[in-house]
Amino acid sequence: QSVLTQPPSASGTPGQRVTIFCSGSSSNIGTDYAYWYQQLPGTAPKLLIFRNDQRPSGVSDRFSGSKSGTSASLAISGLRVEDEGDYYCATRNNNLNTWVFGGGTKLTVL
Amino acid sequence: QVQLVESGGGVVQPGRSLRLSCAASGFIFSDYAMHWVRQAPGKGLEWVTVISHDGKNKNYGDSVKGRFTISRDNPKNTLFLQMNSLTTEDTALYYCTRGTAVRWFDYWGQGVLVTVSS
């Protein structure tokens, strides 16, 4: 059981907007940044969002992140079939220099 | 371009040891903290350990503390993970990944599979 809680699954149809939530506590997300990673089938994870809402160069602006209190969210707009995969949130534990991942959310594009 | 290539995985019996390596290229290795993250078959990501850019500071997840040791050889651009007293719970794909203060886990290797089985 991860200290960061994500729904195990999410789904949408092409073109729709989907939001994935990540719930933590005051000892992790509440005091540090939220990061998001995308893992497409059979591949290594990829950094999608850093420092709550920043996108690395090359990441589509269809992906956006936000954080409020002890929760973070990842929104994907204009859903595409190629967005199918697993999405993980991550943060650091209370400045202890240890990190935690959420349990992951499997996104299905119907 | 940044490349991280893990090696050293395989099948090992419970209680035995294994040493993983991660060869880095395409960036100044000694400028970056490095992490190991693992993923059990069909499961999510689990952070394992981190080492600072100069090797002086290390931290471990609770599940591996006292059994795993992270180290690095900066002149050889290589990261290591010494895994002792392995259990079946350590069976996973092990990724090495780079980190900075701003961008955690910004590049990942392809992973190396460790299977602990009798």
Q: Number of helical runs of chain A?
A: 0
Strand content of chain B: over 45%
Largest sheet of chain B: 6 strands, mixed
Spatial strand sequence of the major β-sheet of chain B:
2-10-9-4-5-6
Taken from the alpha-carbon principal axes, the silhouette of chain A is: globular
List low-confidence stretches of chain B. Answer: none
**Number of β-strand runs of chain A:** 9
Structural Rg of chain A: 13 Å
Relative strand content of chain A: 35-45%
Distance between the termini of chain B: 40 Å
- The percent range for helix content of chain A is under 10%
Helical percentage of chain B: under 10%
Q: Note the run of SSEs of chain B as H and E.
A: EEEEEEEEEE
Secondary structure category of chain A: mainly beta
Q: How does this structure look, described?
A:
Chain A is built from no helices and nine strands. Chain A has 110 residues and is an all-beta fold. In chain A, a hairpin with a 6-residue loop joins strand 3 and strand 4 (46-49). Chain A is globular and about 40 Å long. The termini of chain A are far apart. Chain B has 118 residues and is mostly beta strands. Chain B has a six-stranded mixed sheet, with no helix packed on it. In chain B, a hairpin with a 5-residue loop joins strand 4 and strand 5. Chain B is globular, with a radius of gyration of 13 Å. The relative contact order of chain B is 0.31. The mean pLDDT of chain B is 97. Classes of the chains: A mainly beta (110), B mainly beta (118). Chain A binds chain B through residues 2, 35, 37, 39, 44-47, 50-51, 56, 86, 88, 90, 92, 96-104, and chain B through 35, 37, 44-47, 50, 57, 59-61, 95, 102-111.
